[in-house]
Design goal:
Layout (H helix, E strand, L loop, with lengths): L8 H9 L4 H12 L3 H6 L7 H15 L4 H5 L1 E4 L2 E4 L12 H8 L9 E5 L5 H9 L4 E6 L2 H13 L5 E5 L11 E6 L32 H9 L4 E10 L5 H10 L3 E7 L5 E7 L2
Helix pairs in contact: 1-2, 2-4, 6-7, 9-10
């Protein structure tokens, strides 16, 4: 019997790139082989074992079905952190780093600040702020006990200790406490939005994506409750949809906040709105 020619790294990548995004193909093959992406290019002619090729084929099929790359590899980079993620958490988005940037611009270095992150998920925002402001104390809340376990593990793996995690809906675990800043990336997609049934969103937790008929239910609750938990001069920052800036500005002003403004992302779309307590 003639021997089958071994399949190489470059052949696997060529086949995969015909069906999925090239960067996704690179990430998944590197994961299947337990290597880095740079290794792939330096070893393009290397043969791949049948077991590794089968592992990659399985990942490729799942990605073709729409499963997020981050769920397939179990990790996602955010800010300067490498975070574990799973189906109990949203996949951290690069655009959410804008919220971290805006928060840090209002958090002086070296101060003993108190910061809250509502609906923390994997802990992305809370951990980024805690790492950049090591003198601060960060409290992260989430209604999902499973998500909090992921966030706690991420804190441990990234050696971040100035943070604590509390189980509960939005501000309920923070009764009687006040903060210099409250940040949140809450669900803001309208229920019934067609995008919820498309692409990666089909695999992410629905409760972390949509909130009410207009997508603003969670933001309304946060805007109403947050001022009572802010110190004078404290900031509230909320990420939201590209078409929700005017509505969120109104909610923050109605809650008594001042210096309310909406910040746009690199694509000039409304991305987050913030305001301060008098």
């Amino acid at each position: 019997m003639p021997m089958t020619e071994p399949i190489t790294v470059s052949q696997l990548l060529f086949t995969a790139r015909a069906t999925i995004d090239a960067a996704d193909a690179d990430i998944l093959l590197a994961h299947a082989l337990g290597r880095t992406r740079s290794w792939l290019f330096a070893h393009a002619a290397d043969a791949v074992t049948p077991a590794d090729a089968a592992r990659f084929t399985d990942l490729l099929q799942r990605r073709c079905a729409g499963e997020p790359v981050a769920y397939l590899t179990g990790t996602r980079g955010f800010w300067t952190l490498e975070l574990a993620v799973n189906s109990a958490t949203l996949v951290p988005r690069p655009e959410t780093e804008l919220l971290v940037e805006q928060a840090l611009a209002r958090l002086p270095e070296g101060a003993a600040l108190r910061i809250a992150d509502l609906g923390t998920g994997s802990g992305a925002i809370a951990l980024a702020l805690a790492k950049e402001r090591p003198q601060a104390h960060v409290i992260a809340t989430d209604a999902s006990a499973e998500a909090l376990e992921v966030a706690r593990s991420n804190a441990q793996c990234n050696s971040i200790s100035n943070i604590e995690f509390r189980h509960g809906d939005w501000l309920r675990p923070l009764q009687g406490e006040r903060f210099d800043m409250i940040a949140s990336n809450p669900p803001y997609i309208a229920e019934g939005d067609s995008h919820l049934g498309q692409g990666d969103l089909r695999f992410e937790p629905a409760l972390a994506l949509s909130s009410g008929a207009d997508g603003l239910d969670a933001i309304r609750m946060i805007a109403i409750a947050a001022p009572a938990h802010l110190r004078s001069g404290g900031w509230l920052l909320i990420e939201h949809g590209y078409d929700q800036g005017p509505a969120v500005r109104t909610l923050l002003r109605d809650a008594g906040l001042y210096s309310v403004k909406t910040v746009r992302d690199l694509e000039q779309r409304d991305r987050l709105t913030l305001g301060a307590k008098p």
